[in-house]
Amino acid sequence: MDPRAPRYKQIEIPLTVTNEAGEHIQCACVNISESGALLHVTQDHQLQKGQRLTARLVKGGHLADVTMRVERLDGDGVGVRFLRDD
């Protein structure tokens, strides 16, 4: 990353995830990496550790369905890990 690139704090990117029951859950993505993300759930949904979610994200320059698993639930938000396609 270019050290001159601007760094932003408190940016939340809107994201809709879908749970295994097909319910759409509105979230705000506050941190994302190659392996996972930190989400703030903006609706009153009960997520559980180990639960699988899907979302449409840009991957390799194209929209792709990405599956993730809830790894942690705490005051910082919902930590999810992206699952590989294989």
Give the CA-CA distance, first to last residue: 29 Å
- Which CATH-level-2 architecture? Beta Barrel
Number of structurally distinct domains: 1
User: In the CATH hierarchy, what is the superfamily?
Assistant: predicted glycosyltransferase like domains
Q: Output the CATH topology.
A: Thrombin, subunit H
The level-1 CATH class: Mainly Beta
Kindly provide the radius of gyration, computed on alpha-carbon positions and rounded to a whole number of angstroms. 13 Å
SSE pattern:
EEEEEE
Strand order of the largest sheet: 1-2-3-6-5-4
Strand content: over 45%
- Shape call: globular
Quaternary state of this entry equals: single chain
Number of strands: 6
Tell me, rounded to a whole number, the average pLDDT: 87
* Helix fraction bin: under 10%
Structural class call reads mainly beta
Main sheet: strands, sense, barrel: 6 strands, antiparallel, barrel
Extract low-pLDDT stretches. Answer: none
Pfam family, one: PilZ
InterPro entries: PilZ_domain (IPR009875)
GO molecular function: cyclic-di-GMP binding
Domain PilZ: 5-84
Task: Walk me through what this model shows.
The chain has a six-stranded antiparallel β-barrel with strand order 1-2-3-6-5-4. The model has no long low-confidence stretch (mean pLDDT 87). The chain has a single domain, classed as Thrombin, subunit H. It has 86 residues and is mainly β. One of its GO terms (molecular function) is cyclic-di-GMP binding. This is PilZ domain-containing protein. InterPro entries: PilZ_domain (IPR009875).
